[in-house]
Amino acid sequence: MDTTLADRSAALQQRSQRIRGVLLAILAANWVVAGAKLVFGLLSQSAAVTADGLHSFIDGGSNVLGLVAMGVASRPADADHPYGHGKFEALASLGIGAMIGIGMLELGRMALDSLLHDVHAQVTPAMAVVMGLTLVVNITVTRVESHYGRKYQSSLLMADASHTMSDVYVSLAVLASLGLVALGYPKADGIIALGVMVFVAWVAYGIVRQAVGILSDTARLDPAQVAQHTMGVAGVRSCRDVRSRGMEESVYVDLKIEVDPNLTTAQAHEVADRVERTLHTAYPQVVDVVVHVEPEHDGTAAHARAPATESH
């Protein structure tokens, strides 16, 4: 069992290193995009493009936050954190949700300025080219990050991909508003910005909901399905009180089973070990199973012969 645990720990360490590599590459891309938007926005005195550049810098800030979080999350379990540090990844996702909320407020301010104070961007062909190129980069970044987020089952990468996708929609909105303003519809700038703000708010809600689910120990596995797998193990008379929690890629399970009260302690432990192996096979994402073994309640004498034991 020690070898198995060591292998799982090594796999988690390798996963964390790969996720950090993806975040570093995304960080470089985000800050190149942000720098291009900010420089061009300031030179052309375009408030919309400058604000979009600030939003891209928030993307870069979320990558830095993710890198720090993954550095902590990849640490092995210790005396103070016996279940490991994986929840720091969820905390980082929560921070990304907060950053998206900040971007949403900025979008709201831009929309109100456009609608109430007739503040509009100065449209130039060069501005449209810059926005189009950065849009292509952002779409590529989102697709790459989503791919690796699914591959490594990383809530952090998926959350950051959603954040970058919000930047894609912001850029699309800016391009659309520039086109409509150039065609003589200045109010379109504010109206489109309000629509993007609603979308960004929905993205933020989804990210925060996922992170809160992890931090609040939302059940990860269907208890009835886990019980069904457990009942298929020879020697198990009943299964109850199934609980699961953790991240998508690292789930912890504990449950209670009843066995023949005439079994010895060693035999009861063997049944528990079979349950553990069965659940690891059925759910590759499970990293730890705690089986509470109890005698089937059909006699006090038998109960005394086979005291309650635990296996994990």
Automatic annotation (TrEMBL):
Keywords: Membrane, Transmembrane, Transmembrane helix, Transport. It is a multi-pass membrane protein. One of its GO terms (biological process) is intracellular zinc ion homeostasis. It is found in: Membrane. One of its GO terms (molecular function) is cadmium ion transmembrane transporter activity. The keyword Transmembrane helix applies. Residues 23-215 form the Cation efflux protein transmembrane domain. Pfam families: Cation_efflux, ZT_dimer. Residues 224-296 form the Cation efflux protein cytoplasmic domain. GO terms for cellular component: plasma membrane. Its main location: membrane. The chain crosses the membrane at residues 21-42, 86-105, 125-144, 165-185, 191-208. Belongs to the cation diffusion facilitator (CDF) transporter (TC 2.A.4) family. This is Cation diffusion facilitator family transporter. It comes from Myxococcus fulvus.
